[in-house]
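Quick one:
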Amino acid sequence: MGAVYFECVCTCYPFNEDELNKTQNQYNNNNNNNHTNWRRRGSPFGDKTLLMPYYEMPGLGPTLLIALVTVVVAKHPLLLQPEQVHLALKGNPCTMLVSWVTGNVTESVVEYGLLPGRPFSLRAKGSSKVFVDGGSAKRSMYIHEVLLERLVPGSRYVYHCGSGFGWSDMFNFVAMKEDTAWSPQFAIFGDMGNENAQSLARLQKDTQQGMYDVILHVGDFAYDMHEDDARVGDEFMRQIESVAAYVPYMTCPGNHEEAYNFSNYKNRFSMPGTTEGLWYSWNIGPVHMISFSTEVYFFLNYGPFLIEQQYRWLQKDLEEANRPENRKLRPWIITMGHRPMYCSNADAGKDDCTKNHSLIRGNLEKLFYLNGVDLEIWAHEHVYERLWPVYDQQVYNGSLDSPYTDPKAPVHITTGSAGCSERHGHFVPKAAAWSAFRSPDYGYTRMKVFNSTHIYLEQVSDDKDGKIIDSIWIVKNHHGVAAWL
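Output:
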């Protein structure tokens, strides 16, 4: 009796020998199978190579070849062409991470150069990973990452990404400045979807005008990235490319990313640190920025130990940021998390921020207060709401005339009205004493950290054609817990 060969997949790649070896290794690893043998055959199309894994089962009779599945993936530009290009900071101001997606395995290459100068005089290579969505179709994609290093701070670079089988459009970015004596500018929002992304066009125009150094997306993407076997996530990443390929797009997870243990979020975005973007921190200018997950308190099915892990990390990170030499260098500490501690929305008993015993407030407010966090940024509620300086539901304004000058508690901003399929949020008729300004308009927040003492924030209303409907200066001559005294 001979062997029976079960031919499983037939994949067509116009690759060289190295690419073929890489493909069969990835197939084996992804399918947890080290017993797959491989054959190569000429393609019936003439200009391609067929790469076919098969299983050899000895002792079952004369040699027999049974083709179970034959899938020919032709030399198709949509499978090899880079898309969903976006940037991220990784903690070192002299680096920039470039990420993108292809439908099949290719090299991971970024060609780039300083402007003015030769556009693609420099070249960097990275790696790719296969992401398999948790939906029924088990759709897969290749996510590529290349870290550009030794960038000249404050200099503009032009780049494209891809491989010899296809290149992206040409984009550009400005490398972060290395010192603390500069004034970074941010666009800040949460809860932006594919459908009804009201703020996206204005954000695109702002980006083209060079208004921002960083984008902060405070949770809830696409609505939802896992829907339609992750095609909704693909479309969202294509939409934001017009912003995120030019400016670092920094994120935190929201409740709409929960599916399959936040797998779409963890794989599509690559943030600093080693927690798959759940919690991390980074420095920019005079700011120490902390991103964390509010969702660990609500999705305990993924492990209640995450609550303790994140809390201990926050304690350690805040302790480090508050060392005198560090706080002097970067006096501002700003946090961003998805679900707010406070809100005056008409979701009584439903949303955590409407409850007297809020999980987020109960677990984190004291920690942030005792470590002198200056500004806390939130989303989740599809509105804009600015609070007076507040701690334990009590208002601690700096003074009657200048409430945000040397305030005696952190300032909270909720900005979750960028636009999504769930439409506007709604407020209770009478706001609490700690609520200073609120608006249901679609829009987003701009922030400029001028120096060690002054931050300016303004709210852009998309409903009112870009009108600034709210603005404040936060002025602090002292930082840290001593500022509350």
